[in-house]
Amino acid sequence: MKQECYLGVDLGAESGRVMAGLWNGKTMRLEELHRFPNGPVEIAGTLRWDVLRLWSEIQHGLSLAARSYGKAVQSVGVDAWGVDFVLLSKENEMLGQPFHYRDARTQGMLQAALGRVPRAEIFAATGLQFMEINSLYQLLALQKRNPALLAAADCLLMMPDFFHWCLSGTRVAEFTDATTTQFFHPAKRTWSSELLKKFQLPTKILPEIIQPGTRIGPLLGSVTRRTGLRRIPVTAPASHDTASAVAAVPTAQT
Predict the structure, then answer these.
(1) Does residue 66 contact residue 229 with C-beta atoms inside 8 Å?
(2) Is 177 a catalytic residue?
(3) I want to staple 243 with a disulfide (CB 3.0 to 4.6 A). Which of 56, 73, 176, 177 is the partner?
């Protein structure tokens, strides 16, 4: 068979890369197309992510893929770190520059949350370890410090979901990254809406949850024009980077 190319965008807290998975029908070979730095940006005493620069770097990597592999490119998907998110308005405007998980605004929010809802109740609804960087405490910090911004939000997208939206225009939440929020129910496999209501946090901002391997939609026409790629499918991997790493472990066990 002719060689096929599957693109993966791998975003870490210190660097990102656009990778080509080259499949010849028997073996997969990996090629790094573009690597770029990542990290917190300090502004006005806060730590933020420069997601617009990351999007620019991703598009550059996709352009390199188009030049090297052209019509052999079959799909693209993104994995990234957990817990952090982007808020969009109803008109798809970004609301603020997304916070970095090490920003100090969540200090004390875990204890404050336990004063409102018991620890056992939070754990029963989420099954997740308690860390102040979790998305739940980031939302509570936003509720406390900037309620008007939270009220204006129409959609919360975790980091890989945000870049899938940049690629396809579709607002969804991939399962593995949703589990890092501490408002995802592990048994019901859906958002822990009742828990969020107890914290008086909005549930309308949470998009549909999809499974790894779901085709989110075709690449936006504007992205194809900038990169030279065809309207290939945007396909969700296990989008939490740790989940993708586990999925890549060579084992016969399922």
Answers:
(1) yes
(2) no
(3) 176
